[in-house]
Amino acid sequence: MLVTVLAWLPACEPLTSEAHAQTKPARFEKIEWDALMPKSWDPMGDLKALDLNKLSDADPRAIEALEKIRASWANAPVVPELDGKPVRIAGYIVPLEQSKQGVKEFLLVPYFGACIHVPPPPPNQVIHVTLDKPKKHFQTMDTVWVQGTLKVQASATGMGDAGYRMQSDSVTPYKLQP
Question: What is the pTM of this model?
Answer without folding.
Answer: 0.79
